[in-house]
Amino acid sequence: MENFEKYVGQILDKRYKLSRVIGIGGMAVVFEAQDLAQKRTVAVKMIKDEIASDTQTVKRFINESKAVSMLSHPNIVSVYDVSVRDDLKYIVMEYVDGITLKKYMEKRGALSFKEIISYAEQILRALEHAHSKGIIHRDIKPQNIMLLKNGRIKVTDFGIAKLPNAETVTMTDKAIGTVYYISPEQASGKPIDQRSDLYSLGVMLYEMATGTLPFNAENPVSVALMQVNDKPRRPREINPSIPIGLEQIILGAMEKNPEYRFQSAAQMLRHIQQLKSDPNFVFKTRRDAPAATVDTEAAFGAKERPAGKDSHELRDAKANKPEKKSRRRRESRSMLPIIAGVTAAFLVVLGISTVYLIDTFLQAQEAASPDIITVPDLTGKSVDDDAVKNLDKRIFIVEVEEAYSDSFPKGVIMSQQPAGGEKRKVIAGEQYCTLKLTVSAGVETVVLPDFTGRDNREVEMEIRKLGLIPEARYEFSVGVERGCVIRTEPKPRTELRVGETVVYYISRGEEERGKVTVPNFVGMTASAAYQIMVGEDPSDPMLTLGRVTYEPSSTVPKGVIISQSLDPAGDQVPRGARIDFVVSSGSPETTAAPQLPNESEIDIGTDGGKNQNRGNGNSNNSSNNRNNNNNNRNNDNRNSNGGNRIRELFDWFFGGFDS
Amino acid sequence: MFFFGKTDIGLRRGSNQDSFVAVSLYRNTVLCVVCDGMGGANGGNIASKLAAEVFHKTLAESLAKIAPAGNPQDVDLDPKGADYGALLKNAVSAANSAVYTRAASSAELRGMGTTLVAALVVGNMLYAVNIGDSRLYIGADGELTQITRDHSYVQYLVDIGKLTPEEAAKNPIRNIITRSVGNEPEVEGDIYTVDLSEYGHGYLLLCSDGLTNFLSHEKISEILFSKEGMGKKSLEETLREKVERMVGGANEGGGGDNITVLLLGF
């Protein structure tokens, strides 16, 4: 990976001083910078070195950046400058001090109706402006929507070149992000137009209203296929408090076929505004469209949408007129009014009034009068307690932080900020009180790793890092090299409280215990051989049993040793040396389906059960693998880790950018 | 059996990330492998080379265990005498582990991987394995048939009826593959078994997508079955000429990717 920090402190073109990295995406990196000429903070987006050599991509990046620099809209992050020099390619953008809608939604979950309408309006105005200049965003997603403190939305990464990347990428694994919002036409590689942005916005509105994504799966392939193929769950099934009209708008924007979708941002915006003035409004048929609305389809050259098949029956529409049933069904599909007849002049007026509307909207927000509330005392309660769940979401933003504790049980609120009893000024749905809860994560425990065979100094450090106290002891060992760890007390994988002591035994190497002559075990039963090897003192065996391999034999009876690894006639070996055996598993005919494993390892000195367990563990693993493989064959889905890697590839491919 | 293979950087890439192996293992046995690597500046060529080599070595070793005694070029393998499919799968696993382990060993190589298509011809039997979107075709009787099924996202869309094969062939996201060698701890290849005697005489064509994306099926077919110069030249010479023409054709078609073509006459 490139090190972008090296750019920090540099001044580009004697004008832009880079102060820090604020985001790294698939093809570019973004810095916060000071514009020394204008004396203002800006964001500088620089193409990554490895992309800079791909002339075709760079050309597109520059061309599209230039196009975007022509956009000027309060809801779009402005592009101030585009540098196209051979050795230095970057764009300078408005620096936005806010958080992404993604982060905001992560904190808040489902948003209030009022907020959804406000954000939808602003995003639609931005889209309307861009679309009118022929610019399609292509990557509308919460990561690209900035939310300012005053409630204003700024859409960013507008139309920045998406890589026409012909290089093969793999997506065998899960990725987070980009595919959740792409339109069916994007997901199937078909040509797209401005209606693709409306689909993505529809997915975002779905998420805002329900707190969940319409299509979610472990890996991008499945999600992309769902965009193409699957019908989303109705938002009101998830959150019944969503007004019918909003559900209609969301599903209308998320139509698979762009012909059935809203045809323009302006059209969708009018529906949002209709709903804003009357949240209970239900869109029914083309004729029932709000009289005040004017369609701009002609201006965008869209075809009239046919009254086609119904993919979302409006069964729960409460304002069903006693129309002929068959007809209602057919027409309900075209719940989005299409009223022809708009003049170009109107568009111009709309463009101007947009600015005005936003201003008045913001003023209206500031003018609402605040309430004084008393912060409840939640300490000592469970974080799952109703008192927490029932907090008014229009007033409180709850932030939960976990901390380990010896005295509070897991899940109990240990402290809160502000404290119970304090007063706060709030406006429901607009000005919130952020309530920070510190919840006990219970006693901090760690799982002891397996340190066997590792260097003792390393092990000591790792034990300390885990918050445990190391205690060294020394022992002789035949198998473990001097200085390495033989075993620990407690055993690996034991769960320990932080602060507990771990004894680790360090090998002093092989003890000079003298040499022994290896007996000839061939022809003995394994158990007889074992008796001889162990001798009288099991803690000081003459030889240590190593690997035992079973082989069928028609001449040697079952259970009898066929051969041994140490030569009985050879030199003496150190006492306790390891010896391997090949043992007969009986004649091949009688052991057609041998119960014995082909190969197993037995350690003397540990209980015999271990061996058994190990065998079982292996067979479980292999059956799991087999299952996985079956899954893979069915749908090529991969469930193992490595998401970041794939995500990079995927972001690269779709040109996504998460700051 | 004669074969000829060539790999070309194309016109737009800075490096050639394709690799191939074509080798006569026994008197009646030929192995052909094409790998198209991906990932980073160096990762792609390392992945494809490593996968092709390890695959070849592993398969050769397992074939040696079942081969009759004698000089390999003087003995035949039994065309149906072993589970060749299992041996191919085993060789894929070895190649996968090798690339996966190597990728994990250095930050620069992280994420590298490769496609792999291999054809093992034993007498009149063809055993093939595929992962990714490199392809194996059989050309016989004037017809060019794709044997392997791509592990690609657009192939899915075709399977579920959202794209036609023609749309898929031109699709801008056809470069996304859903299975690869070296990106996951384990991978399973698809095995194909074909009795070549049913085809009489013909060609096996193995190629990376640098050929198929920049030269149409019809053009490839045309070159393959062209009788130009036939009879005057050796079969070896004819194969070489066809391969050269296909590579040239893909470059004329844009040469946007590395091109590898491996042709075997049977």
Please explain how this structure is put together:
- The complex is a heterodimer of chains A (659) and B (266).
- Chain A is an alpha+beta fold and 659 residues long.
- Chain A is built from 18 helices and 26 strands.
- Helices cover 31% and strands 20% of the residues of chain A.
- In chain A, the strands form eight sheets. In chain A, strands 1-2-3-4-6-5 form a six-stranded antiparallel beta sheet.
- In chain A, a hairpin with a 3-residue loop joins β1 (11-12) and β2.
- Chain A is elongated and about 95 Å long.
- Chain A starts with 10 loop residues before the first strand and ends in a 5-residue tail after the last helix.
- The radius of gyration of chain B is 18 Å and the shape is globular.
- Chains A and B meet through β10, α7, α17 and α18 of A and α3 and β9 of B.
- β10 (169-170) of chain A pairs parallel with β9 (176-177) of chain B.
**Spatial strand order of the main sheet of chain A:** 1-2-3-4-6-5
Beta-strand fraction estimate of chain A: 15-25%
Largest interface: A-B, 35 and 39 residues
What is the 3D shape of chain B? globular
Reconstruct the topology from this structure.
The complex is a heterodimer of chains A (659) and B (266).
Chain A: E1 11-12, E2 16-24, E3 28-35, E4 40-47, H1 49-52, H2 55-69, E5 79-84, E6 89-94, E7 98-100, H3 101-108, H4 113-132, E8 145-148, E9 153-155, E10 169-170, H5 184-187, H6 194-210, H7 220-229, H8 235-238, H9 244-253, H10 265-277, H11 297-300, H12 325-332, H13 344-367, E11 371-374, H14 386-389, E12 396-403, E13 413-417, E14 423-426, E15 433-440, E16 445-447, H15 456-465, E17 469-475, E18 485-489, E19 495-497, E20 501-507, E21 515-516, H16 526-534, E22 543-551, E23 561-564, E24 573-574, E25 577-584, E26 599-601, H17 609-635, H18 643-654
Parallel strand pairs in A: 12-15, 17-20, 22-25
Antiparallel strand pairs in A: 1-2, 2-3, 3-4, 4-6, 5-6, 7-8, 8-9, 11-14, 13-15, 16-19, 18-20, 21-24, 22-26, 23-25
Helix pairs in contact in A: 4-6, 4-10, 6-9, 9-10
Chain B: E1 2-8, E2 18-26, E3 29-38, H1 43-66, H2 84-105, E4 113-114, E5 116-122, E6 125-131, E7 135-140, E8 143-146, H3 153-159, H4 165-170, E9 176-177, E10 190-195, E11 203-207, H5 209-212, H6 217-225, H7 235-252, E12 259-265
Antiparallel strand pairs in B: 1-12, 2-3, 3-4, 3-5, 5-6, 6-10, 7-8, 7-11, 11-12
